[in-house]
Every structure is written in C-alpha cells, then in structure tokens.
C-alpha cells in the first residue's frame, strides 16, 4: 500500500501543474475510472473522507451519511486546492481502498452494479463506510458482519451531530407556514400531481433510499446583524439540511456580520423538500447556541432548471421570482435567472425564532449529467 501511495505522489509531481490537471491524472489511474461502489464508468465525484471515486447515484447515498462520515466533492464543479489533491493521492485510489473496505465482503452480500436500485446501493454503502462491516481484519478475529438494523438510528445520530436542538423551538415539521418561503408562482411551472406522488409509497423511515433528480449548489454568502451569543459577539456557522442530508460551513470567530462565500452541494430528492438553513454559535465548552433558522422552497428553481435544461439560449434572462411579502421570510424578491446556461437564484431571508439576523445565499440547480 505504501508503494502505491508513493507511486501516486510521484506521478503527480506538481511542477506547475494545476490541481484540476492533477485530478484528471488521478482519474485515469487504474481502478479510478470506475465507481468504487457500483462500477459505473467515468465517476465524477469523490468522497474526500475515504478517497474513493464514485458515480452520481452513489454520491447521493454518501451525502445522506452526513459530511462527518463522507464528504462528497465534485471533480468538475468544486474548486480543488493542491493540498486537497495531495490528500486524495495519498489514499491510493479505488483499487487499494476497495481491498481495505471490502476485505471481508461475504459472498452472500452482492456488490451493487451500475443498474442496481437505490435500495441496494444504500444498504451496501452504509455497511461499507458507516458500519465498516467489510473492513480488513486479522487472521485471529472474526469479520465484523452483523445484521444491519441501523438506518433510522444511524441517521438520527448523523443528524444530531450537526443539528443541536433548541429547547424553545418547535419541531421542524410543526412550524407555521408563514415561516417558510412561499412562492406565489409555484404552479406556473406546470408541475404535475403525479410527480408529487412518485415517492409517496416509499417509507420515510428508509433514510437515503430515494431517487435524486439533481443537485443544488448553495453558496452561503454572508450573515448580517446576527444575534449576540457570547457577551458582545458570536462565532457563527451555518448548517444546510435537505431531506436526510446535512452539511455545514466553517466557523467564523467573533463576527456578527460574517462573510462565508462558501459553496456546499446537496442531492435533490425526487419528492423535493424545503432547504432548511440553521445558524449556530460555536462554543468550546458547552452546547452550541441557536441563532435562528429559515426554510427555502427550492421547487420553483428545480422546475426552472428542468424546463431550460436543454435550452440553447446564451443571453441572461429572468425566469421568475419569489415575491417578498409579510407572509414569508424574504427580505427582498428572490429572482430566478438563466445566466450562461446556469439556473440561479439569490435569496435573502430573515432568520426565524430569534431576535434578529439576515442570511444571504445563492442557489444553483445542477443537472445529474454533471
């Protein structure tokens, strides 16, 4: 394994080569041209936590594990640094990593194939990376294969690691409608009722076992006039939650007007839930303090992306907007626009259940083909 890692590093001697070129070289290494989990050709995603190259479908399952278990990055959509590429190269690639994480894979547990269902992928990936059931073991210890019962419990643990509950806060699905961003033009996109029913028969307890219709890239821009939680200031960070997926920004110390400009990616489930944003103050010796939240309806953005996915229009144009009113949390109208082939929306929301604070984000809907 050490020899392989050295070979990877030597083959990617920087010498002025930009990180994207080095990434391309890594993708072409033997084994990395196939998804580590299902064998789909030309994977375009990476779990930077495990160093494996994965396909779009498997990347959605990795995201549902939570970024604290598997952080997913795009080979093309994310901006990679030399340090990140160095770290990826040191893992050794798909072949080496599969020998490690599938060393004890029993014959009666089939590995997913490119055509496998989302249920098969979810079960396998959770066993492989979250429970480490197939990981290499020595000759004197039994392989750690046990009956898998953990979808609900593991997700609850995943969520609790990112979301610190607030004792005065009502449950997420109990919030009044006025706390959500309401889009008066939602029905103008022509979404059929059958689309809403497509996943209604699936059990909501089967976390991560849903089909994905696309990706949403969220650029957390900045916060303004946030609540004070540490004497005279706060150390804020933002959690983004979509369905069972949660990701978070870095912490910015001692700032009530933080500028993150940090982009995070989430998979969009077919039964599209609202994007939930939560702001917390980081505490070293106690539970992180709650600083407010908001919900953003992303369905209009997704429908606009579907409608214009194959558009050949090059000039920028407005496709619609979310109108700010006293019935929603918008600070100003959120315009959906087509810009250089990308569907984007700028959103500014007043944080709820807190004394003050505004959060600005930029949304971009990305088709699965990317």
TrEMBL record:
The keyword Methyltransferase does not apply. SUPFAM superfamilies: ArfGap/RecO-like zinc finger, C2 domain (Calcium/lipid-binding domain, CaLB). Residues 156-165 have a biased composition (Low complexity). One of its GO terms (molecular function) is phospholipid binding. It comes from the Eukaryota. Residues 166-175 have a biased composition (Basic and acidic residues). Keywords: Calcium, GTPase activation, Metal-binding, Zinc, Zinc-finger. PROSITE patterns: ARFGAP, C2. Transmembrane segments: none annotated. Coiled coil: none annotated. Residues 156-177 are annotated as: Disordered. InterPro entries: ARF_GAP_AGD11/12/13 (IPR044518), ARFGAP/RecO (IPR037278), ArfGAP_dom (IPR001164), ArfGAP_dom_sf (IPR038508), C2_dom (IPR000008), C2_domain_sf (IPR035892). Residues 20-142 form the Arf-GAP domain. The keyword Metal-binding applies. Gene3D superfamilies: Arf GTPase activating protein, C2 domain. Residues 197-312 form the C2 domain. PANTHER family: ADP-RIBOSYLATION FACTOR GTPASE-ACTIVATING PROTEIN AGD11-RELATED, ADP-RIBOSYLATION FACTOR GTPASE-ACTIVATING PROTEIN AGD12. This is Putative Arf GTPase activating protein. It comes from Lupinus albus.
């Amino acid at each position: 394994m050490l020899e392989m890692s050295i070979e990877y590093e030597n083959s990617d001697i920087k010498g002025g080569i930009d990180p994207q070129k080095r990434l391309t070289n890594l993708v072409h290494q033997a084994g990395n041209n196939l998804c580590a989990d299902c064998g789909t050709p030309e994977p375009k995603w990476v779990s930077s936590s495990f160093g494996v190259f994965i396909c779009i479908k498997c990347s959605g399952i990795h995201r549902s594990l939570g970024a604290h278990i598997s952080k997913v990055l795009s080979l093309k959509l994310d901006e990679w640094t030399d340090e990140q590429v160095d770290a990826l190269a040191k893992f050794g690639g798909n072949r080496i990593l599969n020998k490690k994480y599938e060393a004890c894979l029993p014959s009666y547990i089939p590995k997913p194939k490119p055509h496998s269902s989302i249920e098969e992928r979810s079960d396998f990936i959770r066993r492989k990376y979250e429970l480490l059931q197939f990981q290499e073991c020595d000759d004197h210890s039994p392989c750690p294969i046990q009956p898998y019962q953990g979808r609900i419990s593991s997700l609850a643990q995943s969520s609790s690691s990112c979301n610190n509950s607030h004792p005065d806060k009502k449950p997420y699905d109990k919030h009044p409608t006025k706390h959500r961003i309401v889009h008066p033009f939602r029905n103008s996109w022509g979404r059929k009722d059958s689309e809403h029913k497509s996943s209604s028969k699936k059990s909501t307890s089967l976390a991560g076992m849903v089909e994905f219709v696309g990706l949403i890239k969220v650029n957390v821009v900045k916060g303004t006039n946030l609540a004070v939680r540490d004497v005279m200031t706060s150390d804020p960070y933002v959690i983004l939650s979509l369905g069972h997926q949660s990701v978070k920004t870095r912490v910015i110390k001692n700032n009530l007007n933080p500028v993150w400009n940090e982009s995070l990616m989430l998979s969009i489930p077919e039964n599209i839930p609202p994007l939930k944003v939560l702001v917390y103050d980081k505490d070293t010796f106690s539970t992180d303090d709650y600083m407010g939240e908001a919900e953003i309806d992303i369905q209009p953005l997704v429908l606009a992306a579907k409608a214009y996915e194959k558009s050949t229009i090059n000039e920028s144009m407005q496709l619609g907007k979310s109108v700010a009113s006293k019935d929603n949390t918008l600070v100003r109208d959120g315009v959906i626009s087509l810009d250089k082939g990308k569907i984007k929306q700028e959103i500014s929301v007043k944080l709820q259940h807190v004394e003050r604070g505004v959060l600005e984000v930029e949304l971009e809907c990305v088709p699965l083909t990317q």
